[in-house]
Amino acid sequence: MPQVLAQGWVLVATDCTGMGTKGPTPFLIGQGEARADLDAVRAAHQLKQLDLADQTVLWGHSQGGNAALWAGILAPSYAPDDHVVGVAALAPASDLTGLVDNLAHVPGGSIFSAYVITAYSQAYSDVSFSKYVLPAAQVISRRAASRCLSGPGAIVSVAQSLVLDKPVTAGNLASGPLGQRLIQNTPTGMIQAPLLIAQGLSDRLVLPSVQARCVRQRCAAGQKLDYLTYPAETTWAWLRPTHPSSPP
Q: Which of the pair, 223 or 243, is modelled with greater confidence?
């Protein structure tokens, strides 16, 4: 943020719907995330005390990276008045099937599973929360999904996920109706603005191999993009490997 402000730019950040307000939040649901991003820019232009340039750059990390990609896809049709001139996605959730397939193998993965299953079961009537979460873990999962990853509540969620001695999910999250909805919300549309994707090669949540495959697929489909990698970087602190200089 200090670097952004030092450039004389305005930073507009959305919590998305349902965060601190009533209603479901669109965690990794493209349309909801993208519209929240683009509407936030529109709202900022309504603040009379600001003199904003007629240009927007979309930036996001992890879930925010998924949101930035989706916002870049939708901007020309949904919000051409935002004038998006660039999209930067850092360790984005660009392949949702690949992401959920990995959640069972990382510390704290049950937290992200709870976010995904809760959001999708609230957004889509064909996705059943009880089908994808074991009965013994349903209360813990619902509570974890209600907490933010920043703040005191995150400590509780991480602690519960680490001490849980049994799986939280029932079966494969990428199967059935949830799997189909994950494919539907994977950002595969074309982005007209210049696009940057960056990935930490020590990331155990957003796997470098999955990201690289996604980048290859987007390039093969005709998407122009820059792809940068960083050897010692990862997504969340508790997922950092013991030897970050030796990526998997």
A: 223
Question: Is the same domain home to 47 and 73?
Answer: yes
Same domain as 36, residue 138: no
| Cα 160 to Cα 101, 138, 164, 172, 223, distances in angstroms | 21, 13, 6, 21, 41
Give pTM, 2 decimals: 0.88
Specify the higher pLDDT residue, 185 or 21: 185
- The Cα–Cα gap between 238 and 222 comes to 36
The residue with tokens 């959640």 is 103
Does 100 fall in a domain? no
Measuring CA to CA, which residue among 143, 198, 138, 201 is closest to residue 167? 138
How far apart CA 202 and CA 233 sit, in angstroms, is 5
Question: What is the per-residue pLDDT across 113-168, written as a single tens digit (0 to 9) for each?
Answer: 888 999 999 999 999 988 988 887 777 777 777 767 666 655 555 555 555 545 67
Residue type, 125: S
Location of structure tokens 């305005």: 10
Examine the pLDDT at 171 and tell me if it is beyond 90: no
In this prediction, residue 140 carries a pLDDT of 75
The closest alpha carbon to 239, from 201, 197, 202, belongs to 202
- CATH label of the domain that carries residue 11: 3.40.50.1820
Residue 218 lies in a domain: yes
